[in-house]
């Protein structure tokens, strides 16, 4: 249940574009021959946010990733313990069969019980996996909503036409002048108020 694998995919989708605003008619005209021009001739105002920084510095992400890691580890421990118990029971059964310790009826009954335990373990594995996926999806949705909600408020004054997410090399080139990551993270963390359930689930910071 690797934290990056769990969270990275949804993070790219979470930082969505904000609602389109009107073109900035007051934008200065730019010489089309100038390589140094930073302003789009149409007045389109664009910014971007680094996804990796959101994941590592937004407190909500850090808190929830700890919860998911703990839940994932608990699932692994539970399944591993039950698997070991079943393997030990099966090995003991085989040993007793070789020693002719059971009647035919007893052996058939024990074997049927072991098969049922194996079926139950597979069902438990599926159920716990589904629960983890549901929890992860819940986190994905909460993260997306929190970012989009904040960006809508943030953009009331900034008036960006587009706010893009930058993850790895999904943007072939991005001028750092359009990077608003630090502002967004600072605003997100300031607005973040963990629920009582979240606060109780996350270990107290030393």
Detailed description of the structure:
This protein is mainly α. The protein has one domain (3-178, 188-201). It is built from six helices and two strands; from the N terminus they run αβαααβαα. Residues 104-145 form a coiled coil. This is Outer membrane protein.
Helix-strand blueprint:
Layout: H1 3-14, E1 46-50, H2 51-57, H3 59-98, H4 104-158, E2 162-166, H5 181-191, H6 196-201
Helix pairs in contact: 1-2, 1-4, 3-4, 4-5
The beta-strand count equals 2
Number of helices: 6
Strand content: under 5%
Describe the main β-sheet briefly: 2 strands, parallel
Which residues form runs of ≥5 with pLDDT under 50? 2-41
Order of helices and strands: HEHHHEHH
Helicity level? 55-70%
From the structure above, extract its key features:
206 residues, mainly alpha, 6 helices, 64% helix, disordered N terminus, Outer membrane protein, Chaperone_Skp, unfolded protein binding, Skp_dom_sf
């Amino acid at each position: 249940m690797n934290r990056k694998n769990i969270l990275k995919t949804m993070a790219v989708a979470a930082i969505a574009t904000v609602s389109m605003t009107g073109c900035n008619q007051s934008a200065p005209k730019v010489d089309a021959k100038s390589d140094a021009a930073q302003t789009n001739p149409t007045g389109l105002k664009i910014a971007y946010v680094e996804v990796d920084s959101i994941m590592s510095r937004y407190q909500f992400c850090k808190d929830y990733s700890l919860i998911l890691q703990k839940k994932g580890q608990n699932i692994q421990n539970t399944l591993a313990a039950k698997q070991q118990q079943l393997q030990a029971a099966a090995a003991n059964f085989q040993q007793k069969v070789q020693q002719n310790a059971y009647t035919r009826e007893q052996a058939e009954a024990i074997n049927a019980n072991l098969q049922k335990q194996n079926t139950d373990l597979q069902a438990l594995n599926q159920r716990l996996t589904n629960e983890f996926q549901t929890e992860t999806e819940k986190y994905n949705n909460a993260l997306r909503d929190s970012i989009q909600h904040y960006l809508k408020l943030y953009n009331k004054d900034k008036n960006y036409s587009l706010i893009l997410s930058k993850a790895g090399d999904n943007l072939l080139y991005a001028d750092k002048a359009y990077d608003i990551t630090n502002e967004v993270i600072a605003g997100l963390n300031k607005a973040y108020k963990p629920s009582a359930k979240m606060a109780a689930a996350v270990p107290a910071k030393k």
